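Me: I'm a chemist; would you kindly supply a protein sequence with its structure tokens?

Assistant:
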Amino acid sequence: MPRTTPRAPGLDWTDPECPVARTLDLVGDRWSLLVVRDAMDGARSFTEFQRRTGIARNILTDRLRKLTAHGLLAQRTAPSGRRQEYVLTDAGHDLFAVVLALRQWGERHAFAPGEPRSTLVDRHGTPVPELAPAGADGTLLDAGTTRVHKPEKPE
């Protein structure tokens, strides 16, 4: 069963029929995916997100509110019981493949050969393999082997 993300009041979709555009409307700014990335890496508190990203407090406050309103993060009481923390929801966890694809694109195109960079590894310490989308028959997919099917518009 598909999960839905709540639509925030006043949100106008850039392209209402396009899943890419809707996703970018929700998380396509400079900071949102970095907050999600850090939540995937264990950040929970406002202070941790700010320290890891260097984001200004007012912008971080806005992004945490937005990500919570859209159902990507949830607030809960921290184990200490003294403050609130942010945790990924199922919808937030579902962005892992997006963050991984951006990371792998950056590894290929945003670093000079030999330039130091972080590495994503699995629980055994092995680097995560390249994403390779494949069709139902196992054929690798790319922009040249796929097309967008748009819904019929009522007349």
